[in-house]
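TL;DR need C-alpha cells for one chain.
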Amino acid sequence: MQNQNGSDKEDVGLSRVSSFLRSSTMFYLVMGTVGALVAHFQHNNLFSSLTIPSDTNEALRFLLISLLGAGVLLIFNYVFEEQFASFKAFRHILMQMVGAASIPASIYLAVLSAFGEELLFRAAIQPELGLFGTALLFGLLHLGPQGLISIWTAWAILTGLLFGFMFQQTQSLLPVIVCHILVNAISMLRLRIQYRRFLKAAAEHEAAKKMLSGS
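>> reply
TL;DR here they are.
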C-alpha cells in the first residue's frame, strides 16, 4: 500500500509537469518570438547581441561573467529561502508543480524560459524602459500566490537588475542567457531533489499512520 500511495503521488506529479510543460512551451515561445521581432525590427540588435565573440579572451570574459552572476544569484536564492518563510513556501508550491520533471525536462524548461525572457525583457524592452523599468516589469511578471506582489516579486526584481546590468555592460545576451540557464537549471534540479524527499517523507508518514492504526 505504501508503494501504491507513492506511485499515485508520482503519477499526479507527472501529470502536473506534463501540463506545465505544454503551457510553458507555448508561453515562452510566444514571449521569445515577440522579443526577437521587436529586437530585430525596432532596435536592430538581435543578431549582434547573440553573436559569439571571435576573440577567445572576450568569450572567456562572457563565460566568467555568466558564472559569477549565477553564483551571486544562487547565493541570494539560498539566503531568501532561509530568511523568508513566504519565499520558502512559494518554492514548495513550485516543487509540487515541477518537482516530478525528469532531468531532460528540467533542462528544457531552464533553457526555454531563459531564452524567452531574455529576448523579450533585455533585447526588446530594456532599450525602451531602461535598466530599472525593465527590472520592475520583470518582477511584476513573477507574482506570488493568488497573483499578489510578494517576496518572490522582490527576488525577481533583483534578478532582473543583475541580468539587465550584465546586458548593459556587455551589449550581449549571451552571458545573460547562460547565467539565466544555469540559475534555472540548478534551481529546477534542487526542486527535483526536494520533491523526491517530499515523496519519501509522505510515504513514511503514511506507513507510520497505518502502523499506529493497526491497519
